[in-house]
Automatic annotation (TrEMBL):
Transmembrane segments: none annotated. Its EC number is 3.2.1.22. This is Alpha-galactosidase. Residues 1-25 form the signal peptide. InterPro entries: A-galactase_NEW3, Aldolase_TIM, ConA-like_dom_sf, GH, Glyco_hydro_27, Glyco_hydro_b, Melibiase_C. It comes from Actinacidiphila rubida. Residues 485-539 form the Alpha-galactosidase NEW3 domain. SUPFAM superfamilies: (Trans)glycosidases, Concanavalin A-like lectins/glucanases, Glycosyl hydrolase domain. It catalyses: Hydrolysis of terminal, non-reducing alpha-D-galactose residues in alpha-D-galactosides, including galactose oligosaccharides, galactomannans and galactolipids.
Amino acid sequence: MRKPIRGALAAFAGALLLATGTTVAGGPAAEAASTAQAARAGSSTATAGPLLGWSSWSSIRREPTAQKIEAQAKALKDSGLAKEGFVYANVDDFWYHCPGSQGPDVDAYGRWVTDEAAFPPQGAKNGIQAVADYVHSLGLKFGLYVTPGISKQAVARNTAIEGTSYHADDIATTTDEANYNCGGMVGIDYTKPGAQDFVDSWAGQFAGWGIDYLKIDGVGTPDIGDVRAWSQALRQTGRPIHLELSNSLDIANTAAWQQLSDGWRTGGDIECYCGPNGSSTPLTSWSSITSRFDQVAAWAPYGGPAGYNDYDSLEIGNGTDDGLTPDERRTQMSLWSLAASPLLLGSDLTRLDPTDLGMLRNTDVLGVDQDGIDARRIVKGADSQVFAKTEQNGDAVVGLFNTGSAPREVATTAAALGLPSSRDYALTDLWSHGTTESAGRIAADVPPHGVALVRVHPARQAVRDAAPSVTLALDWAPAASDSTTRTVTATLSDNGSRPVTNAALALTGPDGATIGTTSPTRTPVLTPGGALKATYTVALKPSDALFATSDFQGTGSYRFGSSATHLAVGDTVTVNHTVGAPYRTYASTTASFSQSGTRLGIRAQGADLYTPVDEYGTIYLPGAEHDGSTTTVKIDAQADTNVWAKAGIMVRNDITEAGASPGYLALVETPGNGYLLDWDADGDGQLDSQDSTGTATYPSWLKLVRHGTTYSGYYSTDDSTWNLVGTITLPTAAPTQDVGLTATSHAAGTTGETDFDSFTTD
């Protein structure tokens, strides 16, 4: 199963042997596999490394069928992914029959009943077992889904517990359990006779169906008893069944998760749930990926080889429908692999994108995942992060991540990676497969939201036939956001142990921009560890645009031996205009503001503007909202950063007290969900209730009318005919309140621009 990975790593080791004269004993995937097997010998399943495969939830969601699952399993094999180790085909929720809130239908022993319309039986064979048999016939493994507790239907019918004299009512509690979609589950009292027998019966049924993987969803600290019962039950079936826990597990209970299971989800769902009309695509978003960086750092001490931190599905395979750019896809796969996470694909395998398939079959990157070693974070900057791990052969693998919106150099050192002092270091980019050498500075020019995933090998001798690592960076000096004069320094760095020659720098920009420098921009020799720096002064052409953007490109060139190399780094400078009195500005997220005449602009990030998140930028009028006031605004344009991105009118007692101030409402437009009136019904300072209507169009007009503590929100597409969004009451509204324009991108780390005009209140 791992032969292609080991083969690729062996080839790399051979290349290093030729380049450095250093013997590399075995590849990290092979070594890690041996260690992991030994550590997990007593587990319910012995796995050489983090699991690879596919799961149904991201792309199929609530409508799995036998036909769909079998098609995905066949595609897993036919695509060649199975040859690389992707062998699990897992059915998530909705394989069972769910009639409603009374809970899943159950059999005579209280166990969930298969939805026979979706998974029809084959003679006496259960429909799930039939699919499992098909998956096994392809040489693959099959997984299934369950949640803690027992169905309320079993309790209502007081079903028997197989092989005992006990019944459901003997073991059930009245506490609701987390079945996120169907509902209708209650807890089990594991001090009661028959409780373990019930789980044993269910596990035995699953084993009889041929299950190889079981996901228990909705697990929290109160469910440790369920996890212990399932762990024991699966072991006693005699069938190796991988036990995975989900989701947002409490890190304080890591010892329990490690003892009782084979893997554990560290956070919520990776899916963005941002597709139009409930569509499963796009599968995820950049903000969903960036939310994992802190999780990987926090959970690193607790993963592998006895069990693995699970960062949820790998949303790669369907091109633009992934919801990520190609660079963002490489970032996700690199971070997951550095973290030794299970790689369970969420994409539709029957329509694989060729470029994505190439990423997924990159055996160098898969080898990083399969070593079973968790990377640690060694740098956390505003727009960059660095994660690294040391493998058993002494190599380090480092991820240089650019989380910002502009290209940048991301750097660390061999010492920071924990590598010993060495004459030279061989740097192999695991995505491009190119090799350079470094004297100890590990750096790369990384595109926005991108990554350089590099294997660093200490070499006792100079790395032959490898050019020095050379990087180019643009660093803009701090300046007022409305300034049209900027200063930037371009730096060409030789990170290697050998010099390069004919080094040169240049900076180009848009028409109308003036660029000048008094610094030398050329040098005949750039010495090892040296840098050529040139500082440029840039005068930008004035513009009346709310946010005027200018694109610049820095270039660096040099020669090494007979080869000439050209590097390029692009960057964008944004200039806005000062927002003047009587307006004020405030932001609870990263935001900037602009005013040009009656036009007002907000460029804001923000994960959400709905409980429990309250992240926004606002241009507001303090104390201008009162009984009898009418507020209107025109929305000329809104960035489609997410179908739930919001822009419009905000009112609250104190607009600068995000997450706290009551008397709170927002009348907003969204790109994919029309017009909303959100309000704080319980007065805790968080939006928690919503009315919605219409389909977004631009331009649009919004109008908010207040009478006492009653507010009515309207929208118009022609500034003439007004349509009611909703009418609500805010008992906590102060006699006078702040009122303003607001925007949030609904995508943490992503900036969206909204352009407003004709903002009035009376």
